[in-house]
Amino acid sequence: MMGEKPGNKIEEQATEKKLLFLKLTPEKDVDISGYEDALDFALRDKDIKNVAISGIYSSGKSSVIETYKDQKNDKKFLHISLGYYRSDENSENIKKKVKTIPEKGESVEIDKEKNPMKWETDDRLLEGKILNQLLHQIESKKIPQTIFKVKRSVEKKDIVSLCFLIMTGIILFLSLLNYNVWTKYIADTFNFNIWGGVQAICFVLLMALSAYLLYKTINIQLNKNIIKTLSIKGANFESNIEVFKESTESYFDKYLNDVIYLFDKCGADVIVFEDIDRFENSSIFQKLKEINTLVNNRIGSKKKLTFLYLLRDDMFLSKDRTKFFDFIVPIIPVIDASNSYEKIKELLGQQNVLEMFDENYLQKLSLYIDDMRLVKNIINEFMIYHNKINTINLNTNKLLALITYKNIFPKDFSELQLNSGLIFNLFEKRSLYIGREQEALTIEMQALKSEIEKIKKESLVSFDELEALYLSKDLRVNGKTIDSFNSRTELVTEMKISGAIIEELYNNRYYDAALDDVLTSIHEKTEFIERKRYLENRLSGDFEHLESQISDLKEKQSALWFTKIGDIITEEDIKNTIYENIIGETDSFDYIKRNEYYPLIYFLIRNGYIDKDYSDYMTYFYENSISISDKLYLRSITDGTPLEWDYPIVNIKKVVDRLNEDDFRKIESLNIDISSYLILNKAVFKKQIAQLFKLVSSQNKSEYIVALYKQFDDNLKVSLMQMCFEHWSKSFVSIIDNEEVSRGDKENILISLLENVSKEQLSQINESKSINQYLEKSKTFLKLLGNMSNKFISNMRSMDFKFDSVDVVEFKDMRGKMIYENNLYKINFNNIKRVLKYFYHVDGDSVNHKNYTLIRSSTSSLEKYVESNIDLYMGKYLEFSKEKILDDEIYVYIIVNNEVIDLEKRKEYISYLKTNNLNLSEIENLELKEIVITSNLATPDEENIFHYFIQKDKKWSIELISFANKNKDIFEFDYSKISSSYSDEEHIRFFEQTVRCFDLETEIYEKILIAMKYSYTDGFSIPEIPQDKMKILIETKVVGMTEKCLTSLRELYDKNIVKLFIEKNIDRYLEIISDMYNYGELIDILKIDNLTTEQKMKVVDIIDETISVIGQNYSEDIIGYILENKFDDSDFEPLINQYSNYNDSIKNIIREIAVGSVGVIIDNECDVDKHLLDRLLSDTDISVEKRTIIFIRNIKKYTLPELKLGFEKLGLESYLLLLEGRRPTFEINDTNESILKYLKEIKAITSFKKEKGLFRGYGKKKKK
């Protein structure tokens, strides 16, 4: 567990308790298992002289080698640490100028010409650093012959001794030079004679001293090179070299022998080169490897000098590093972004501060930290900062975030303390970011407002009308083009009727089109989709969801000033941050943005770990002083640069004490914390409060009142209401009209107002009815209400206000009951629906379509409320019924007969009814009866038909005819139910008008006339009755079969009607026809299929003339009967010609007629049917001569075999002989000539000719 409140828990430590810190130096007790074996192998093997220990920065390379040194006392290590660290500004430049050895291994290129500041790395710099560190780690006495100068301090006694010897030598030299003068001077002065041997002693001493000094000089010159340069006749000789003397020549190259000397005399087994990779120069490795080789060659096999390099992995870009080194030991990083959390957690635990932090925060922060030294230093600095500035309960998460930022971006942190840098500029631009977000929300609100306006302006009233608007003109429905309809909407309506035939014009031809395809082509149009959305919202009349969105967006806008910068800033904002000073110089902070740790800044700011209170985490806090943020507020007033109203004040009392009354006249003084403090202590700050409201009212800053209101509890809100009324009574109206104030804030203030002000105060505030106007438009006011007090109800009544929409949920508590019982809701569908649902437990479609029935079903407040506002209710009912009303009949009659309701509304009500069983006699207004009939709402029966007929001047009106026709499938007419209800005159009038009502459907026409059983007997004088109606009159016996009626029909109608009339009354007709004989009429009767054979025979008998059967569709019985009784001679030839077409009985009759008329057949050369011909040839009652004539005239009808048979029957033996091949003779006449020609034609004979007054025929000889 990290603690109950991570990030806020404060670890109080006693001042006497010492803080624990972490050192940044390499550890000497790390686990080197694995590494130790590798190093042992490398140092033991004679061939391995250049070893690399590689790993990323802070991977633990130094700790591994330090631990190894501690464990291996038999080896002497010498460290050369080449510290080289670049500042943020030039780090990128160095990377650009220093070129690492690429894959081919060529030398590093260094920009030496553009190097005036001498900060770039070059070979000479590295060599000098290496030699310098080497010189200072070797005792001078071990390297007396080195030519490199090392400055060391000289002891005082050495200087004194040297001075004494030099002075002694000078004195001895001078004394010997002027020996006589010195001896005389001493003798004269001191009265002392010098011994003669003194001169010899002085000379010996001088020689000895000279010899000593000469020895020392030669020794020093040989070992110390006192004489650096010796010039002889223009020649220069250099004897002592100064390291880092200005020169461009390489030390290693020019003084290779002396460099080797130094490495040889260093006395080390291993020389460790550390941080040499920071110079980004790989050529130094070539030279060191060369030196190592030369040194080991000089040393020989007795020992080995190993160069060990601590390098990062990416020093070489390819496999070239294996060419530089004899052995490479890789170091696994102790810490990186993947495991840094565990290490941070461990170290914080060691410091006993782990419980102060949020675990999730540490996990995320650790992703940006991959350096062990960095972790340690962050923790060290945290401990110091936390101990020094944690006197005001700082958030430890934020403190750690700031310390991390300080360590990774120290320059920007330093600039932050001086009110500059990247982070400072980000917070300075907070208002710009808020403005950007507000502008985006404003654009979104404008779009929603625009959509609401478009919805309100939508002129269409149905989806059919909308589809008609985008419908193609090249359509045809049920064969009708668009011009055939009264409107395009009618076309769409008919198009959707099941079975409608839809055709679309293409290439000047109409082709079948599917309804779905036509509608899909419309529905996919962008304009249609948009208009459909507008129409749906308009038809629903509910803009609440759009207005709610606008209100939510306004609240978001207001809340932006209270939003942390991390919630509105984007990564792009940080990337685009640029500072420009007053002279136009800019800083884009590229050195930060290019840094690999740059994402850390976005993480810390985005998650609020670095916020506008960062200054509290950077400086001391003194109890008797005000904070930096408070100072900024005071400065904003004096500077005239207003801060946000929600700008937090830390020590409000001290800030107020520093403000005078004049300060409250400035707009910059407006601050929520300050104003809240004044109102909370209103008794003390009356003048300041008055000045505050005067300032706010003069600036019309009603949104500031709202901001204050949101900060107060209920008691202070009441005080604020009274102060507003006292100092600025119009503030409430201003709040309502202020678009910057969110809907929720407006409504919360109105609730407080209605709960706390008196009627008189409310009347004064609401003088312009602004509150009413707002509440009428509000969709959410009720949702914010608690249980309403009597005062609230009383104020609502005094405003004469009713809620436009009361939700079901709101009805379920006391406030809903109060609204319901006090009729504080408007009569509209939503409210009535919710009342019915909650109080009547009624829901579903019946609420829309059976609303009045539901309301009248029980006595309640709703029923009384509706009845007292019945006309208003009816208007709403018509709207929400969706043109479909299913009220019970009894309530339908109540509504349509209620004259309080506007007549037009009653008409519309009737037109929406979906019943079809209304009784017209229950409706009082004739105009409404007409609508009922027109709308097909009445029962299609005898009572409504007859009633409406009488009401409409005893005529079949157009609407009555239409009503009857529409209901032809269910129409019933029970005349018995009304036969006694009206006068005989009215019944006869109805009958006669019905007979003359030709527009009635035949089914209706027939049902009525059948039911009434009335008929005409004394003639029928109604002309031009349509044929279908006339048939009904005949079939229903409305027209009786009398002589007068028959005469009338013959005069007024064609023979088909007369024929039908006779057919339907045939028996009566046969009774009266003798006195009204008509041949043609009787003949037509014979053609009626429905008459029996007996009836037709009676007709034949009545006819006193012959009757032709040819071309008539008589039955065979009637044909036979006619042939036997009324044979027409003109039928003879057709009958004998069509003999085969008749049945046997008729054939017999025809044969008998033919036998009796053979002479006619011969005389008229009649064409006789072959079968009849056969019968006649076989009939012996006919003479042979006549049969022969008939046969000869019809010879061509026979085949050769049939001819032989015919010749045989008629006894024509000569022709039989001819056909047998003989040559008989024949009498010359036309008959024989015709026969012989036909036989020759059919090739039955070969020829015939005249011979001796006869025809001789030549038959065909038979083949043997």
TrEMBL record:
Tell me which Pfam families the record gives.
Answer: YobI-ATPase
Question: Which residue ranges run through the membrane?
Answer: 159-182, 194-215
Q: Which UniProt keyword terms apply here?
A: Membrane, Transmembrane, Transmembrane helix
Family annotation (InterPro entries): YobI-NTPase (IPR048428)
Record's keyword annotation contains Membrane = yes
Q: Where is the YobI-like P-loop NTPase domain?
A: 35-423
Name this polypeptide is given? YobI-like P-loop NTPase domain-containing protein
Q: What is the lineage of its organism?
A: Bacteria, Bacillati, Bacillota, Bacilli, Bacillales
